[in-house]
Amino acid sequence: MIIYHDLAEITQPLRRPVITIGNFDGVHLGHQTLFQKVKERARAVDGEGVVLTFDPHPIKLMRPEKQLPLLTTTAQKVRLLSELDLEVLIVHPFTPEFGALPARDFVQEYLVRRLGVQEVVIGHDYRFGRRREGNIALLQALGAEFGFPVHVVDAIQIQGQVVSSTLIRTLLQNGQVYEAQRFLGRPYEVTGVVVPGFGRGARLLGFPTANIALDNGLLLPGAGIYAVWTELQGRVYAGVANIGTCPTFDNEKLSLEVYILDFDADIYGERLAVRFVQRLRDEHRFPDIPALVTQIKRDVAAARLIVGLSNPAPATL
Ligand code: RBF
Ligand code: MG
Q1: Nearest residue by C-alpha to atom 3 in ligand 1
Q2: pLDDT of 59 strictly over 80
Q3: pLDDT value at position 173?
Q4: Average pLDDT of the residues in 173-193
Q5: Atom of ligand 1 lying closest to residue 283 CA
Q6: Which one, out of 48, 132, 245, 315, has a CA that is 20 to 30 A from the CA of 253?
């Protein structure tokens, strides 16, 4: 797959491009049905399958006050999309000027003139242009005018629920990482950098943890103790993550820390990925340190068992 970071980088005309457009936050199983359709249509017209997405997520620019937590950073999204069996990925900068484009101009200037669109594939809830003024009916009308068919892909349901980024966010915020995986198609992953903590884990508990500063904008699952996979320095380890305020020690700030199994090295400043496999329990306030340590030992044993039974997801670091 060829990756462009701006539409302006495309200097050669694409070959009969079949284009899907969207934010694709999470790159979940609903999105995958769109990509399948693109592949199918690209084959049918002997053209190139193209994914057009934006950086940053438009909502960050248009409605920053919403502070919508995201399921993927742009880096994760690019990694996941680049693994698709399609020809071209365009990650176009979402600037205020771009966001102010009338819907008609986006189609005429970008899809028709710059990309030479052959066919378009979009999801059932697709909106485009300034203030999301463009809907599917308008896209179909413009398609008829400029001569490209529009294929609308229905929402998919899994176990009676419509797959959407919103559903996945809600599940994760409730700590339901195992349920979220059903709709994502892989374990939910966060990325970040290892930063200094209080040093209490190693000193007082005998369980040193990597405290993680999350990459900007990513959703942190609900508080609790989780069995996880951790990837760092190109290797994958089992681990136990703690999301919370460590009530035993009255921390004020919510943090994500991971005890990495069978690992012993100084990793401050390293990038790391955490993939949430299963939630083990709520965070508790323990009466003393030995009680907390006893529980952490149980958590480690549980994680070893659970993570040992699941495959690590492919890297997105
Ligand atoms: N701290 C708590 O106050 N309550 C807990 O239930 C708790 N569970 C933990 C479980 C695991 C597997 C790990 C690694 C840590 C846990 N901690 C808990 C966090 C512990 O207090 C923290 O790692 C140290 O205070 C160092 O920051
Ligand atoms: Mg620590």
Answers
A1: 246
A2: yes
A3: 98
A4: 97
A5: 6
A6: 315
State whether the beta carbon of 188 lies less than 6 angstroms from ligand 1. no
Query: Which structural domains are found in the chain, ordered by start?
Result: 2-161 (3.40.50.620), 187-307 (2.40.30.30)
The whole-number pLDDT of residue 174 equals: 98
Once rounded to an integer, what is the mean pLDDT over residues 206-219? 96
Average pLDDT, whole number, for the chain? 95
pTM of the full structure: 0.95
Give the pair of three-digit tokens for residue 230: 């951790």
Select from 204, 209, 280 the residue to mutate for testing ligand 1; criterion: most ligand atoms less than 8 Å from CB.
Answer: 209
Ligand 1 centroid, distance to 276 Cα (angstroms) = 17
Closest C-alpha residue for ligand 1 atom 19: 246
Instruction: Convert the pLDDT of each residue in 98-115 to its tens digit.
Output: 999 999 999 999 999 999
Ligand nearest to the CA of 246: 1
Give me the mean pLDDT over the 25-45 stretch.
98
Please tell me the number of the ligand nearest to residue 211's CA. Answer: 2
